[in-house]
Amino acid sequence: MATSSILKSGQIIFFFSSHNSLYGNFYNAFTEFIIFGLVFGLITVELFRKYNPVLTSREISKKYSDHVIIIGYTHIGQRILNHLKAQGIDCVIIEEDIDLIEDLIANEEAVINDSPLNIKTLEDAGAEKAKAVFVTSNDFEIQMVVKHYIRKLNSSCKIIVRIFQDDIADLISKTYNTEIISTSKYASEIIYNKIRNAYKKVLLIGLNHISVRLIEKLKQRSSIEFQLIEQNEGLIDDLIEDKSHIFCGDPKDGITLETCNINEVDCVVNMIVGVKDSILITKQIRDLNQRCKIISRFFLDSIAEILENPPFRAEVISSSERTIDVMIQKGMFDF
To answer: What's the CA gap between 115 and 119, in Å, rounded?
Structure first.
């Protein structure tokens, strides 16, 4: 009798038979409602993920703990992410420029497309639970404000900041207990060591923090004649006081290069990172001077391989790649 009752109950529960009663009718209706709700919920979640990928990536970021936050998806930020992923370390990216992180968002990576100057952004990135924060943005306001917020949320995590100015780096390092990286410093040292004893006439192309450091080093080297070509006059005014070595012009223009005596130059250091401009400049230089050494700063390995072969025959360095090596040596990834 008991066995028969259990069997009948099982048939009702799994809808092999129905029970013509108030409870039986309620059970059927309620179960259909639950199943419909589950199916509807699954469809809704999938649609949310498909049509709101930015919000999905942000929600994913909120779930992380004991992770690393990378603020600024710059070249060095990308290399830091790749290095940490290879070590099996979870990362959250904060980047305002949606174009830089479209692929990461499409792949449902932990990415927040928002300003790091908003403390809510840092909270959503799990700053209070992070074991390290890398600030790779060039923006001084971000460098200062973010470190203040991070220390407010997390007093013990490691903070590594990319800063160009040595005096500001010293201030920030002491005030917020941070470690400092300078891609321009490392890159300028590498380039200077390559050219200081090997060349007499050097042409720098493109004004940035690396070339500013190189100018200061080359001024101390009386045996080397040098010039720098920069197209942006406003940038020259902002970064350079002594303009005696500066020529304002378009380095893609053969006349500009000839004015700077490109045929007499034995080494050209090309700081232009834009793919199209860098290739055009390198080709123009090689057409006007077949024998000179060309050193190009570049991030993309695929383009670097092209520039290293004929007709360009340039030596390519990546300041961000070298910076990662230095960071490893200094133990900045030990956390």
So the answer is: 9
